[in-house]
Amino acid sequence: MGICAFDHKSVENQELQQQAVDLQLDSNGKVLQTQKQNTLDENQAALKIQNSFRIKQAKQEADEKKNELLLDMPKDWIQYNSKFIIPELPKQFKENVQKSLTKQDRLLNSMKAPDGSIYFGQWNRGKQNGYGQMIKPDGTYFEGIWTQGKFQHGGILFSNGDYFIGTETNGERVYKNGIIYIGEVQFGIPHGRGSLHYPDGSTYEGEHNNGLITGIGKFRYQNGTYYVGQLLNGIMHGKGILIETDGNMYEGDFVNGQKEGKGILKYPDRSQFEGYFKNNQRHGKGKLIQRDGQVKDCEFQFGEQIYPK
């Protein structure tokens, strides 16, 4: 039998190859660890940049909101720290005035104006804008929608108990004494054309000026009397026609609610007087026209005929 020789060179080669593999593995591990560390460092750097950007963006948004708030804050008003007290409101007022905040306007705490008015509601660029409630120094209460500092529509409760529901230019005012006005207004006060309904059934339709019946209109009284013509502060004044309950119809001049000046008085029997009047009576020269057309000159003094006798 032959004896196999041990190959030392082969073993050495294997060991060298294993060492090379181990070195390679070790080297790859270090490379991978370095790559991981680099990636981590890059991610952390990116995160810091993102956080810095977010902080900067948040600060910018906060500054913008602060500036917007400053723009919406009224300049001449001051903070009102007492409780805003709403007066007792009539049922119709509460049912018809809607409480609705707008989305684009800012709601602030109660503010006090230089004239003493208290306002709680929404603002935009330093002016009341959107839904709000206001109490004037005289006790008048407003509730509704404002546009650029002007009351647009809603309700007004006056200090005397009257109240109004409508818009800046038109609506319904209910007086404490039972009179109802429907028509054109200025801040709840009758101004322009409108109609009045009285508790006794009398009605008026016509012009108003700053809450007073002034201009041209029609009165229908509960007792059947009818007037159409010019009025001043609710009184017949100027040119007009008056039909009275006894059937007489007067057409002519009025002064302070009485027939005064030139006019024509027509009677139910179709006769008439044409001439002058004073204190509701025939006064001065005129003509009596009979129903058959016959004309007679005449003269009266405070209702008494002095010519012909």
Automatic annotation (TrEMBL):
Keywords per UniProt: Repeat
SMART domains, per the entry: MORN
Coiled coil, from the record: none
Membrane-crossing segments per the record: none
Entry keyword Transmembrane helix: no
Stored InterPro entries: MORN (IPR003409)
Classification via PANTHER family: RADIAL SPOKE HEAD 1 HOMOLOG (PTHR43215)
Protein's recorded name: MORN repeat protein
Species this protein is from: Paramecium primaurelia
Taxonomy of the source species: Eukaryota, Sar, Alveolata, Ciliophora, Intramacronucleata
